[in-house]
UniProtKB/TrEMBL annotation:
<dbReference type="GO" id="GO:0043856">
    <property type="term" value="F:anti-sigma factor antagonist activity"/>
</dbReference>
<comment type="similarity">
    <text>Belongs to the anti-sigma-factor antagonist family.</text>
</comment>
<dbReference type="InterPro" id="IPR002645">
    <property type="entry name" value="STAS_dom"/>
</dbReference>
<dbReference type="InterPro" id="IPR003658">
    <property type="entry name" value="Anti-sigma_ant"/>
</dbReference>
<protein>
    <recommendedName>
        <fullName>Anti-sigma factor antagonist</fullName>
    </recommendedName>
</protein>
<feature type="domain" description="STAS">
    <location>
        <begin position="17"/>
        <end position="118"/>
    </location>
</feature>
<dbReference type="Pfam" id="PF01740">
    <property type="entry name" value="STAS"/>
</dbReference>
<dbReference type="InterPro" id="IPR036513">
    <property type="entry name" value="STAS_dom_sf"/>
</dbReference>
């Protein structure tokens, strides 16, 4: 009998107009990665440039989840924008560290810490209201 996995839950909130906070709950693996990708693509489509990924309720993530995070990181950098991982579980943090993803994508302990990092990023020239 197959083991039933927890379905993936992704809650999207907008702390700011250009910032999407995605709170992910459940296994982020080959079976659920496409759903996660759809949420990220939808936020990109709606003009979000900064992505805060709360992984505090993700007990397991495989290469499918990591690939999506790296893909959105690349897309966000071209905007320019950013991706921040928030409070990964110890198992997920271990995977991020072993694969080097945590060197590329900043890891923050809280949403506020991630938003402070977003505030320290250089702003895109087209956002200057004085032009």
């Amino acid at each position: 009998m197959p083991i039933a996995q927890n379905p993936l839950s992704v809650e999207v909130t907008l702390p700011r107009e250009d910032v999407a906070l995605l709170t992910v709950e459940g296994y982020l693996d080959v079976d659920t990665a496409t759903e996660f990708q759809h949420h990220l693509a939808n936020q990109l489509h709606h003009g979000r440039r900064h992505f805060l990924l709360d992984l505090s309720a993700v007990p397991f993530m495989d290469s499918s989840g990591m690939n999506i995070i790296l893909r959105v990181y690349q897309e966000a950098r071209e905007l320019p924008g950013s991706v921040h991982i928030i409070s990964p579980t110890s198992a997920v943090r271990r995977i991020l560290d072993l694969t080097g993803v945590s060197i590329t994508v900043p890891v923050s302990g809280s949403v506020d810490e991630a938003l402070e990092r977003v505030d320290r990023l250089p702003q895109a020239p087209e956002e200057d209201p004085g032009s």
